[in-house]
């Protein structure tokens, strides 16, 4: 099966998610700086969520570049990832509109954790279809960054109930950790 349709569909869904998030930024009622103050939490969550969605889009693109064939399992794993990514605008809006209250902040972490798990499932489905000696398998290796991200999310979720700033710092830290595309995959792409 050709991977172009999978890439185009995924790109379209991700573009819609970004559009939905930006539409949540409401126009302030007033022309002064004070009118922007209530929007600060919403804007900050938008920036973090935009970064996460961008990271997923970038890494998804690189991962699919190394895929040689697309199977039914890969299609379903991709839909699973897109499902969790589609919840990011909701979690973003809820957290931002409620000034990082504990439950919305924890739910945001749950969505990020499950999106990360879904990404790993997609990655494993691609590797399973191509074999343990595939370029993607070699590039991913033991995937310490992916496993560390899951552990950090698991810490951030309950931390939201003790101190939401700890959770926020963890979310930003994970985003910063992934901001630069994985050099292992970049090297495999350059070598192909």
Describe this structure in words.
This protein has helices at 4-23, 40-66, 72-86, 88-97, 102-130, 135-140, 144-162, 164-178, 183-191. The mean pLDDT is 91. It is mainly α. It has one domain (4-191). The chain contains 9 helices and no strands. α1 runs parallel beside α3, α1 (4-23) runs parallel beside α4 and α2 packs parallel to α8. The chain is globular and about 55 Å long. Helices cover 78% and strands 0% of the residues.
Protein topology:
Blueprint: H1 4-23, H2 40-66, H3 72-86, H4 88-97, H5 102-130, H6 135-140, H7 144-162, H8 164-178, H9 183-191
Task: List descriptors.
192 residues; mainly alpha
- How many distinct helices? 9
* Count of β-strands: 0
Unreliably modeled segments:
none
H-E string: HHHHHHHHH
Query: What's the shape?
Result: globular
Query: What is the C-alpha radius of gyration, as a whole number of Å?
Result: 18 Å
Name the assembly state.
Answer: single chain
Kindly state the percentage of residues in helix: over 70%
Structural class: mainly alpha
Note the main sheet.
none
Total count of domains: 1
> What average pLDDT do the residues reach?
91
């Amino acid at each position: 099966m050709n991977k172009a349709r999978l890439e185009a569909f995924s790109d379209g869904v991700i573009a819609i998610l970004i559009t939905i998030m930006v539409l949540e930024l409401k126009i302030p009622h007033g022309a002064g700086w004070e009118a922007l103050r209530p929007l600060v939490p919403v804007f900050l969550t938008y920036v973090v969520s935009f970064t996460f969605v961008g990271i997923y889009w970038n890494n998804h693109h690189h991962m699919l570049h190394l895929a040689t064939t697309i199977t039914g399992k890969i299609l379903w794993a991709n839909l699973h990832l897109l499902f969790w990514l589609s919840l990011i605008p909701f979690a973003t809006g809820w957290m931002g509109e409620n000034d990082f209250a504990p439950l919305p902040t924890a739910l945001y972490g749950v969505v990020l954790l499950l999106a990360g798990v879904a990404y790993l499932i997609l990655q494993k489905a691609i590797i399973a279809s191509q074999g343990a000696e595939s370029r993607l398998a070699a590039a991913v290796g033991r995937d310490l960054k992916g496993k560390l991200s899951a552990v950090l999310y698991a810490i951030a979720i309950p931390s939201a109930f003790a101190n939401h700033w700890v959770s926020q710092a963890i979310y930003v830290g994970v985003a910063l950790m992934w901001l630069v595309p994985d050099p292992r995959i970049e090297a495999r792409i350059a070598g192909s």
